[in-house]
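Project outcomes to date are best conveyed with an example. Our students and postdoctoral researchers have been running inverse folding experiments weekly, and each run begins with a structure described purely in tokens. The record below, which covers 358 residues, was selected by the lab manager from last quarter's runs and is presented without edits.
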């Protein structure tokens, strides 16, 4: 059977980036069968950029209904067997659809893949999301899910979903973005195959949802309290779907099984930010839990890096911990500024740097 693949791009005030997302969708070595670009009432020049692609895409212009409704409508407009939701500030590498189709097999809920992390100007930052070391077969993800209620997954743009999965759960009203809920519940509806290479790019800039507070203001680090609350609601939705399917999930707090959220809780305690469920946490408990999760990382480099971070953070006084947290989430900008200062200092002596800045 020939598979049909759709790319749904949702945009709100991303005139700077949406053209790049569309170009990446059009530039696939395996052409998309549908490219739907939904502008959710942008007030900048996004609509004009989108209109410039004419009949090469299927544009939709609607009044602002919010990100959740944009995703729900975008899916309603598709008819393909596989659907990728591409954020307008992200992009796909040219072979993304080709490699997704090659990996696809009956019974999958989704294929997921890594994303190169880039900055607002498109420069690679030398990191990946979610940093998969290799291809991961469905049975490995299923085993992790049965044991822990979770598994490692990428953000929205790193997933290709089966229509048969989406039709069972959409439309969704998630606590934040669709990706958290869709990724969380996917193993209940089919296999999850992981391609261990980057097939797209995830852009970090001042307007990422994860780096804003409830009022939309940019912060130097995620609003941990808000993100923890969102994740708890996503696990509530997982338990609802699991009960409907008579799937036994592990008891206890499933956040204890995700290194990211053990980290968020430890960082919250160290900087003095209150969060839901903190009464059952302590710095030593979170440190130990984080170390145990870090030991399951795919490389010794990751094990050592996570272990060192958790230990230094647990021991740091509040002021130092706050500085460490801010640096962790802004290190690309920090190191770029440091290199630029060093280059200016070298220039004073008539010297030139012997490196290429990212």
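After processing, the design step wrote out the following sequence:
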């Amino acid at each position: 059977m020939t598979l049909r693949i759709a790319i749904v791009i949702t945009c709100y005030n991303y005139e700077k980036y949406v053209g790049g997302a569309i170009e990446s969708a059009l530039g696939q070595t395996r052409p998309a069968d549908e490219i739907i670009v939904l502008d959710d009432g942008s007030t900048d020049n996004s609509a004009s950029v989108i209109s410039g692609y004419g009949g090469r895409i299927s544009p939709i212009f609607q009044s602002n209904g919010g990100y959740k409704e944009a995703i729900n409508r975008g899916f309603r407009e598709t008819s393909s067997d596989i659907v990728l939701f591409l954020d307008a500030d992200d992009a796909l590498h040219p072979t993304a659809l080709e490699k997704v189709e090659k990996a696809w097999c009956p019974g999958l809920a989704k294929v997921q893949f890594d994303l190169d992390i880039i900055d607002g100007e498109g420069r690679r930052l030398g990191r990946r999301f979610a940093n998969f070391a290799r291809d991961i077969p469905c049975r490995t993800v299923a085993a992790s899910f049965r044991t822990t209620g979770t598994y490692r997954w990428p953000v929205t743009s790193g997933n290709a979903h089966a229509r048969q999965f989406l039709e069972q759960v959409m439309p969704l009203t998630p606590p934040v973005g669709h990706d958290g809920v869709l990724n969380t519940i996917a193993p209940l509806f089919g296999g999850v195959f992981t391609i261990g290479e980057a097939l797209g790019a995830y852009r970090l800039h001042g307007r990422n949802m994860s780096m804003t507070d409830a009022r939309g203001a940019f912060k130097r680090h995620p609003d941990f309290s808000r993100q923890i609350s969102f994740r708890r609601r996503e696990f509530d939705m997982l338990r609802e779907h699991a009960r409907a399917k008579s799937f036994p999930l592990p008891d206890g707090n499933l956040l204890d099984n995700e290194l990211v959220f053990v980290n968020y809780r430890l960082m919250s305690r160290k900087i003095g930010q209150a969060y839901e469920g903190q009464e059952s946490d302590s710095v030593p408990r979170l440190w130990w839990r984080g170390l145990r999760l870090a030991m399951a990382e795919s490389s010794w480099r990751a094990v050592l890096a996570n272990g060192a971070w958790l230990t230094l953070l647990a021991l740091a006084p509040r002021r130092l911990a706050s500085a460490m947290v801010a640096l962790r989430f802004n290190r690309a900008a920090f190191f770029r500024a440091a290199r630029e200062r060093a280059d200016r200092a070298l220039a004073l002596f008539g010297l030139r740097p012997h490196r290429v800045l990212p």
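The chain has a mean pLDDT of 92. Residues 318-348 form the longest helix (31 residues). The training component of this project remains on track.
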